[in-house]
Write a structure and sequence with these properties.
Helices cover 65% and strands 10% of the residues. It is an alpha+beta fold. The protein starts with a helix and ends in a 6-residue tail after the last strand.
């Protein structure tokens, strides 16, 4: 069935249309033909054969025309010849086959008129115009229309590809501009912080100040490394930076240790063993914990923070909670932390919930799909 549908471009509508045309031609031929002259016994079979042959008019239109012409001596009307001539012109356009179809149809449709007296030129002209030239011109128009639609479709696809290419070029140019701005502004500022923190750790008046300065320097250096990775992504369209999969989950211990070194109280609970997760999920988990710890430090300074990772079935849950405090720190925020966190979680196929937990705590809960394999 599917192979046959290729004759009709795989469209059932066209098949139904051809079936309707064949049925209509058979019905009209039976109603309008003359079964008594010259071969009454062949009339009905000839009508049926010429009508059913029209089902193949899209695949072999010229063969269908010859079949319709061969059925004319049995008294069949010119309607099958007309439909076949139209199909030849619609399939082949201006070509030798179409010219041959005009000649064959014109001769076959008028040979009986010429052989039978009286000879009437008006009848021949009517037959040629209405049953030959008219259908052929309509078929040529349909052929040109189909060719024009193909050209317009190709032009539209080419224009769409051009627009996509221009959009990609504009995005790439904007990414490079952003990368330059980040390098010139952010990298310069963070480098200055790292250098000043390093100088302070060398001239620290006491051990506590030295540890704080060293923590600031190490954090600034880590920020520069991450900024360098981000700049490479912006400039070269490289994959997102960071250790893949479970390696990123293992690096959460380093993240918590760095935050704890600043004086924060963070408790980390990891599953043992760590689940094997896709790279994108691992990076999203790391960023959720990182952003949550940053927000806790800004909005609830000195409050204890609990970070828990747990695997339930095929889902990895990441929960970060901290006590709500009436006063936050004076550190300004970008205003896009939660928005960026939610976007990253959703891109990894997870879902995110944030807000008060009802027990005087603020909770960030993200769930991600994970595989069954573990390391």
């Amino acid at each position: 069935m599917k192979r046959w549908l290729t004759w009709w471009d795989g469209r059932v509508v066209l098949l139904a249309l051809d079936v309707a045309v064949a049925a209509a031609v058979i019905a009209v031929s039976l109603a309008g033909g003359d079964p008594r002259d010259p071969h009454p016994a062949l009339y009905v079979p000839a009508v049926v054969v010429s009508g059913l042959a029209l089902l193949a008019r899209r695949r072999w239109p010229f063969v269908v025309l010859l079949v319709a012409v061969a059925c004319l001596p049995a008294g069949v009307t010119l309607l099958p010849v007309t439909v076949a001539a139209y199909s030849v012109a619609a399939r082949h356009g201006v070509s030798l086959r179409t010219g041959a179809a005009v000649v064959v149809s014109g001769i076959a449709g008028n040979v009986l008129q010429v052989l039978r007296p009286p000879f009437e030129l008006t009848t021949i002209v009517v037959v040629v115009v209405m049953f030959v030239l008219g259908p052929v011109l309509a078929g040529l128009w349909m052929h040109q229309r189909a060719a024009l639609l193909v050209v317009l479709r190709d032009r539209a696809e080419a224009a769409e590809r051009t627009r996509t290419l221009l959009a990609d070029q504009a995005v790439f140019a904007e990414r490079r501009r952003i990368a330059r701005e980040m390098h010139d502004v952010v990298a310069h500022r963070v480098t200055a912080v790292a250098l000043q923190a390093g100088a302070l750790s060398l001239r620290a008046p006491d051990e506590r100040t030295e540890r704080a300065a060293e923590t600031i320097r190490a954090t600034s250096a880590t920020a520069l490394d991450e900024l360098r990775d981000i700049l490479r992504v912006l400039r070269d369209d490289a994959p997102d930076a960071g250790n893949p999969g479970a390696g990123v989950l293992a690096s959460l211990e380093d993240l918590v240790e760095a935050v704890t070194a600043t004086g924060a109280r963070v408790e980390l609970t990891l599953p043992d063993p760590l689940p094997a997760v896709p790279d994108q999920v691992g990076r999203a988990v790391y960023r959720v914990v990182q952003e949550s710890l940053t927000n806790a430090g800004k909005h609830a300074p000195h409050a204890a923070v609990e970070v828990r990772l747990a695997v339930t079935g095929d889902r990895l849950a990441v929960e970060v909670t901290n006590r709500l405090t009436p006063h936050g720190s004076a550190v300004p925020g970008s205003g896009y932390g939660l928005v960026g966190m939610r976007e990253r979680v959703e891109l990894a196929g997870g879902d995110l919930r944030t807000g008060p937990a009802g027990d005087g705590r603020f909770r960030v809960l993200a769930r991600f799909p994970v595989g069954e394999e573990e390391q």
